[in-house]
Amino acid sequence: MDIHKLEVFIDLSETLNYTETAERQFTSQGNVSKQIISLEKELDTKLFTRSHKKIELTEAGRVALNYVQTIVDQYHQMKNKLVDLRTGSETILHISTIPTLIKYEGFTTIMSFLNKHPETTLQLREAETDALVAMLEHGENRLVFSRFFEWNHPDTEVLITEEDEFVAVFTKEHPLAKKSELSLKELEHERFLLLRETSQLKQPVIDLCHQAGFEPIIANVSSRIDLLIQMAKENLGIAILMSKTFKLNPEDHLVALPITPNVKSKLAFIKRKNDTSLIVNEFWDYLKKQ
Predict the structure, then answer these.
(1) CB of 195 within 8 A of CB of 222?
(2) Residue 1 and residue 42: Cα distance in Å, rounded?
(3) CATH class of the domain at 3-83
(4) Residue 111 pLDDT > 90, yes or no?
(5) What is the share, in percent, of the chain residues with pLDDT greater than 90?
(6) What is the dihedral of CA 248, 249, 254, 256, to 10 degrees?
(7) Which SUPFAM superfamilies is this protein grouped with (predicted)?
């Protein structure tokens, strides 16, 4: 049985949206549909009902989901253990991380650990927050560095390293540029430049705008911070970004101002409870002492 096909099924059961699952799996909507149809044929069972662009798990799909989650989890546990046996000793620290790791204290902590343990090799894998959570839940990764606003996964352990919050980035020529702080309400008629849903930083901005009493005008969405900053520089809109994820240069002629209302995100290392990896637990003990 194709494990990836099962992972797509688990993902779609969470999102109930082909487009969102395609983004999280870094594939096309058509491929997601093919994987699900193939699995349904293999199991000779209808897993989802589809009507008016809305999908739901069937009763059989809900039953299958419990077994599939166990199969995928055990597969990745087996794979991780075989890697440990093949290498003879656990000296490779695998960390899956958001792309902006280097901007945060978590990166400094990793480097400090490696300096104290020169026998350890670091392997980083970048992914957006949505994908990192899915990887952790499905047992693909033992250790993750991610961002969250709320964390409701009781089968994991979390060590928070710092917090970050939103700022508005726009040109110095803008009438609001001389202020020290902005009310979001003042940006009601501005064009917003936001990060994609997979970063989990788009919806919080929309929620803050609703809290301020308006629907934001979203001009562009991207996964690249540098592109959003360049668009702000070209006066194509106002980028709403996390304050520590970028650094402005004087020649950019941009300002980054705190906004109200705001919400703090937490940056943290996360691992599954009762993980048996020696290197992960050694790193975890080191984190606790920092």
Answers:
(1) yes
(2) 9
(3) mainly alpha
(4) yes
(5) 60
(6) 30
(7) Periplasmic binding protein-like II (SSF53850), Winged helix' DNA-binding domain (SSF46785)
Report yes or no: 216 and 205 within 8 Å, Cβ to Cβ.
yes
Classify domain 88-160+267-289 by CATH number: 3.40.190.10
**Is-same-fold flag (88-160+267-289; 163-265)?**
yes
Whole-angstrom Cα distance, residue 285 to residue 251? 43
Whether residue 38 contacts residue 6, with contact meaning beta carbons closer than 8 Å, is answered with no
CA distances to 133, 136, 186 from 8, in Å: 14, 15, 42
Helices (H), the chain: 3-15, 18-24, 29-43, 59-87, 105-116, 129-137, 202-212, 225-233, 278-289
Closest CA to 135 of 22, 25, 13: 25
Confidence of residue 87 (pLDDT cuts 50, 70, 90): low
Give the DSSP H/E element, type plus range, for residue 290: none
Phi, psi of 97 (to 5 degrees): -145, 155
User: In this model, does residue 50 exceed pLDDT 60?
Assistant: yes
Task: Evaluate whether 31 touches 22 at the Cβ level (below 8 Å).
Answer: yes
Phi, psi torsion values for 278, nearest 5 degrees: -65, -45
Q: According to the model, what pLDDT value does residue 237 have?
A: 97
What is the spatial distance between Cα 273 and Cα 288, in angstroms, rounded to a whole number? 15
Residue 70: predicted pLDDT: 84
The DSSP letter of residue 11 is H
CATH code given to domain 163-265: 3.40.190.290
For the entire predicted model, the pTM comes to 0.70
Residue 130, classed as helix, strand or coil, is helix
Q: What is the pLDDT of residues 34-49, one digit of tens each?
A: 999 999 999 999 999 9
The pLDDT of residue 69: 84
Question: Can you tell me whether residue 237 is helix, strand or coil?
Answer: coil
